[in-house]
Amino acid sequence: MKNVAKTERRRNQEHNGFTLMELMIVLAIMSILFAIAIPGSIALQKNLEISRLDSYAKDIYLSVSDRIASMKASGELTTFQGTMYNDYESHNYEQISVPGGGVGFCPQDWEDKDGNLAYKRFFYLVHAQAGDGSGVVTDEAMYSLVPKVSVTQAYLGGFYLIELDPSNGNVYGVFYSEKAIDFEDIYNLGEYGETARSRENRKSSMIGYYNGYSDLLTKQELTEYQVHLDFVNKEDLYLQVQCDIADTYFSRDDI
C-alpha cells in the first residue's frame, strides 16, 4: 500500500507545471531577448530600405546620364540649355534663395568649396508624384531628361531631385524618396560636411542618394589636335592612330 502511495505521489509531481518563480524567470529572459532583438531588427529594416532608395537614385542617375549623352549627339542639349537658363534661373545654385534667408548653395559633399566654384553652375530639377496632394510639382524640363515612357512605374510613384550642370551636361547627384521632397529637404540635410548626405544622416528622412560625378569637376574646354591615321593592313582593317598630345601614340584593332 505504501508503494502505491509513493508511486501516486511521484506521478503527481511529474505532472506539476512550472512554479511561479520559474515562469517569472522565463518571462524576464524573454523580455531581455526582445529588448535586444527589436532595435536590431528595426535598424536592419532601415538599412535595407535606404539601400533600396539609394539603388533607385543610382538607376535614375544612370538613365539621365545616358539620356544627356544622346542629347549631346543629336544637338538637343543646346535647346535644353536654353530652357534651363531662361526658365529656371531660380533653380541655379549660385542664385538660389535658401531657407532662412541668403542666396547661393553649395552641395554639402562638394570637396573643394573654396578653390573649385564649378558648383555655381549647377541647377536642380524635381519630379513629383502626380496627384499626391503635397504641393510639389514636376518641373517641365525634367521630361526632357526623363521621358514618361522611359521611367518604370516604381520611379513614377516616387519623388526625385536631380542636380546637374547644363553647360556640359554633367549630372552631379540624384535624390529619391517615396515621400514628397523639394530643394528645401535637401538643404535641411545639414550644413556643409561629408556627413550631411551620408546614409546615417538620410535615414531619418528616408531619402536615397547617389553621386557619380567622379572627376569631372570643371568644365572641359574643347581643344584642337592633329590626328594622323595610317592603314597598316587594309585587308584586316588594322589602323594606326597618332595624336600630337605630348607625343602620345596608340593603335586600335578592328576599327
Question: In brief, what are we looking at here?
Answer:
This protein has 255 residues and is an alpha+beta fold. The protein has two domains: 44-211, no CATH class; 223-255, no CATH class. The protein has helices at 2-14, 20-74, 76-87, 142-145, 153-156, 183-187, 199-202; strands spanning 123-127, 159-165, 170-177, 208-211, 227-233, 238-243, 249-252.
Name some characteristics of this structure.
3-stranded antiparallel β-sheet; 16% strand; alpha+beta; 255 residues
Strand content: 15-25%
Give the overall shape, derived from the CA principal axes. Answer: elongated
In round numbers, the mean pLDDT is: 78
Structural class: alpha+beta
| Main beta sheet strand tally, sense and closure | 4 strands, antiparallel
Number of strands: 7
Q: Would you list the SSEs in sequence order as H and E?
A: HHHEHHEEHHEEEE
Work out the helicity level: 25-40%
Low-confidence stretches: 215-223, 245-255
Spatial strand sequence of the major β-sheet: 1-2-3-4
Topology of this protein?
Elements: H1 2-14, H2 20-74, H3 76-87, E1 123-127, H4 142-145, H5 153-156, E2 159-165, E3 170-177, H6 183-187, H7 199-202, E4 208-211, E5 227-233, E6 238-243, E7 249-252
Antiparallel strand pairs: 1-2, 2-3, 3-4, 5-6, 6-7
Description:
Mean pLDDT is 78; it is low at 215-223 and 245-255. The protein has helices at 2-14, 20-74, 76-87, 142-145, 153-156, 183-187, 199-202, and strands at residues 123-127, 159-165, 170-177, 208-211, 227-233, 238-243, 249-252. It is of the alpha+beta class and 255 residues long. The longest helix is centred in the N-terminal third of the chain and has 55 residues, at 20-74. The radius of gyration is 31 Å and the shape is elongated. The strands form 2 sheets. It has a 4-stranded antiparallel β-sheet.
